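REVIEWER CHECKLIST
Item 1: Sequence provided? yes
Item 2: Single chain? yes
Item 3: Sequence as submitted:
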Amino acid sequence: MMNVSKNKCVGCGICESDCPVGSIFVDVEKGIAVFDRDKCIDCGLCIQNCPQSAIRDVVEELTIAIGTDDEKIIKPDDHIGMSEYFQVWKYSNGKIIFKETRENVKYTEDETRIHGDPKKAEATASVLKDIDVLVGKMMGPNIKRLKNKFVAVIIREPEIEKSLKIIRENINEIVEEKEKTERGGLILQ
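Item 4: Structure as written out by the authors:
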């Protein structure tokens, strides 16, 4: 599914003028290109000719876990590894669909370690075996151990529903980060 990155698109209109079926246009209010998905024939001219590399054909399915204590807001007062639950969502064809809620493991951290207990990271990762993207308000010191297992995404919008919109709007960047061999994580707004 063709997707325009709102972080890269500069609204130049090259994609609009190159599209043979008129499926993409610049929304002047938003300042970015927008697809009419019903018209798009997936010819790829917009991808080839975009000087900003802002358009991507996202065909990947991604499994996303969001750390929460109440299943409504992202864990507000601690790092994601301390979440009581992980809501699991599936991204496919531009849609994000709820799959399940998983309970985080109860783990007593090593009191002699100030931060970053590797066994805590291992325990949390065991709950998230098939997850591609890990979303929280903040990551703890175990991010060094987790960032190459998952795409680490920080979203400071507390409501999960609004956070899902942010994920959808930034799916290009998430997929690009997933493709890297050395990941740094993303902060999305």
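Item 5: Key structural point noted by reviewer: The beta strands are 2-4, 24-27, 32-35, 55-57, 62-68, 85-92, 95-103, 133-136, 151-155, 186-188.
Item 6: Recommendation: ____
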